[in-house]
Amino acid sequence: MTAEDEALVGGMANARAVFRRGDFVERPAPRHAGALHAYLLALREHGFDAAPTPVGLAAEGRERLTYVPGDVALPPFPDWAMTEAALGSVGRLLRRLHESSKAVAVDASAEWPRDLADPEGGTMLCHNDVCPENVVFRDGRAAALIDFDMAAPGRPLWDIAMTARYWVPMLDPESAAAVHPTGLDAPTRLRILADGYGLSGEERADLPGVIEQATEVCRAFVARRVADDDPVYLQALAERGGWRRWDRMQKWLVDHRKAFTAALLD
Prior knowledge:
By secondary structure, the protein is an alpha+beta fold. The chain folds into 2 domains: 6-66; 79-265, Aminoglycoside 3'-phosphotransferase, Chain: A, domain 2, CATH 3.90.1200.10. Helix content is 44%, strand content 13%. The chain is built from 9 helices and 9 strands. It has helices at 33-45, 84-101, 156-167, 173-176, 186-197, 201-227, 231-239, 242-255, 257-265; strands spanning 6-7, 19-21, 24-28, 54-58, 62-66, 124-126, 135-138, 141-145, 152-154. The strands form 3 sheets. Strands 1-2-3-5-4 form a 5-stranded antiparallel beta sheet, covered by helices on one side. Helix 2 packs antiparallel against helix 3. The longest helix is centred in the last third of the chain and has 27 residues, at 201-227.
């Protein structure tokens, strides 16, 4: 790292390993970097210009991509990132991604990561990790997505469910209060995200159940990291209330399923 380098913070997987160097970002390259870079370039060819452009692989297993200017919300998340207008813009940006992604052929030979992927698979690549730390804002609106490392084949509705977990958020009030502003109304915000994306009636009816499924996948992801003695996830689990928090969160989702469905379909 040189004096001109700027460390970029946010996220857990690549903490303290992502640097801005002028107009470019250097970060650890995923194992499937070749296929992922081809996908990102194809997205741009199909009209989606709201993602980093891969430049190539650098030394020591790193990759270089263009830097995407703007504001990124980090926990504890600021009020400006959790407005209803911001939430609707996240839905619209995700819809734009999916419209272009549907036109890009999936490289079936690539080892796409399964950690957060849709168990049912799909014919298009989903981002799978549209958390606040991976959305770039400009003038209060979601303008770009970054960090496509977890992209994998799946259903569009799966990507929306994963996004809802982070942005509504689909967390019990005690868990949400740890990093989100207080007073967020989950059913109303779920409706705003669905409206921003333009979900169909059938998709709206299915969304609460898919969110529950996505939460189970996220829990299993954390469990694997903890079983591997990953220090980042061990610390996060301990600081956020352990498995009792996951139990509470999953029960809350089931208990409020009717309220979420009513808000989506009203």
